[in-house]
Structure formats: C-alpha cells, structure tokens
Specification:
Strand content: 15-25%
Protein name: Regulatory protein
Distance between the termini: 20 Å
CATH architecture: Orthogonal Bundle
CATH topology: Arc Repressor Mutant, subunit A
Shape: globular
Organism: Amycolatopsis lurida NRRL 2430
GO molecular function, one term: DNA-binding transcription factor activity
Keywords: DNA-binding, Transcription, Transcription regulation
CATH class: Mainly Alpha
C-alpha cells in the first residue's frame, strides 16, 4: 500500500498572528473559514467557490500553512477542518470577531458547500 504524504501543520504554539491575518485577508479564504466554522470535517470536493480547483487548492493551502485549518488525506481524498480551538488558545476572540465582521459585511458569502464527492 502506498504511503500518503500528510501535509505539514504548525503546532498550536507555532501559529503566529501575521500569517493568520494574511490568510484571513482574502474574501475566498474568509468564505472557506465561514463554511468550516461549524467545525465539521469537509471533503475538498464539497467546497464550492467561484475559482478554479487549482486556485481553491491554493487558498486551502494558505489556510493550512497559517494554522487556521487542518487537512487530512485519506487515499486520494482530502478533508479539511477549522482549527477553532487552537486559534482560540492563541488569539482569544479573534476568529469570532472575524466571522462576525464577515457576516455583517457579507464577505465570503459566495463560498459554500456543494454536493461534491467528498474529496
């Protein structure tokens, strides 16, 4: 059985403010965070955004590299979850403030869930 490469994730203590804020500076990424804010694991194929799949993959990698999400690979499928607890430990209240502001301004509302195959 082939070994699947698991993407690197920063430990909670390694999550820093500048990469988090940079990752949250894009409407697509804010929409992804809003979509994942229920803390349920989602297959990449479930996520819908008005960008090419390669661009969506880029946005998911930026979120992962910043420590905002965790990606898990299972076979050929990838699943993503929001690291809400880790972000709350590092920056209390930040994620809730960003999500509330995004909701008020309708940032990322064009990103959501589809009926994809889960990965």
């Amino acid at each position: 059985m082939p070994v699947m490469h698991q993407a690197p994730h920063p430990d909670t203590a390694e999550i820093t403010l500048i990469p988090v804020m940079a990752a949250l500076s894009d409407p697509i990424r804010i929409g992804l965070v809003r979509t994942l804010s229920d803390c349920r694991e989602r297959g990449w194929g479930e996520l819908r955004a008005p960008v090419a799949k390669s661009t969506l993959s880029h946005h998911l990698r930026v979120l992962r590299d910043a420590g905002i999400t965790r990606t898990r690979q299972e076979g050929t499928r990838c699943y993503v979850t929001l690291r809400r607890d880790d972000l709350e430990r590092r920056f209390p209240g930040l994620l809730n403030a960003v999500l509330a502001a995004a909701d008020i301004d309708h940032v990322g509302r064009h990103v959501g869930l589809g009926t994809g195959n889960g990965g």
